Amino acid sequence: MPETARYLEAANVLSRLLRAGGVPHAFYGSIFTAVLANSPQADELYCIVEGGHTHPFRRVRQAVTGSQEITTTASPWSNRLHAKYHRCIPPIEIEILPAGEEGPRRLDSMTVMVVGGIPFLTVSEFVRAKLKAWIIRGTERDAQDIIFCVTRYWNAIDANRIPEHDMHTFVDAYAAAASGWAAIQRKYGM
Q1: Is residue 99 within 8 Å of 48, Cβ to Cβ?
Q2: Which of 121, 138, 172 finishes a domain?
Q3: 172 and 78 in a common domain
Q4: Is the same domain home to 14 and 72?
Q5: How much of the chain is helix, strand and coil, in % rounded to 5?
Q6: How far apart are alpha carbons 87 and 90 in whole angstroms?
Q7: 178-187 and 140-152 are packed helices; what angle lies between their axes, rounded to 10 degrees?
Q8: Of 78, 105, 121, which residue constitutes the final position of a domain?
Q9: Mean pLDDT value across the chain
Q10: With 90 as the cut, is the pLDDT of residue 29 above it?
Q11: What DSSP element (H or E) covers 136?
């Protein structure tokens, strides 16, 4: 089974458990660009979770309790939670991230879109999250995801959600994104 299909299967199972537990969530990572591009390969899957009155990690652990398909492992030294989907070999790892730390603070109809029954960050929020990650880590994977979205889906990007200084820094480093960013700026009269 191609990687994208395996990741989507894992995301679908985790999403079903989180929805049943009333936990607002959205996925992002290279899985999003793979779905948009209809690519068989993806290698990155994150799930952003809102906390509410309880810590988001606790809400996820409660939602998956008793599941044979998904288990969680806390990494206290890095303040991260990892979910593992066991129906595939090798198992699929999904890093759980708190909303606001990664992605938007609130996961609602303005920040989340459903693709194939699975909630993903909108294109604007995806680019914003990837741009933040690229500024911190500077990885080529993040850069390629940003370029893909900015050049192909520029009309779906809300310029008000993109940090302008960070995007200028990005465009200086990757000229391939310049035409898409210029189109976004024209659209918003920037």
Answers
A1: yes
A2: 121
A3: no
A4: yes
A5: 50, 20, 30
A6: 9
A7: 50
A8: 121
A9: 93
A10: yes
A11: helix 123-137
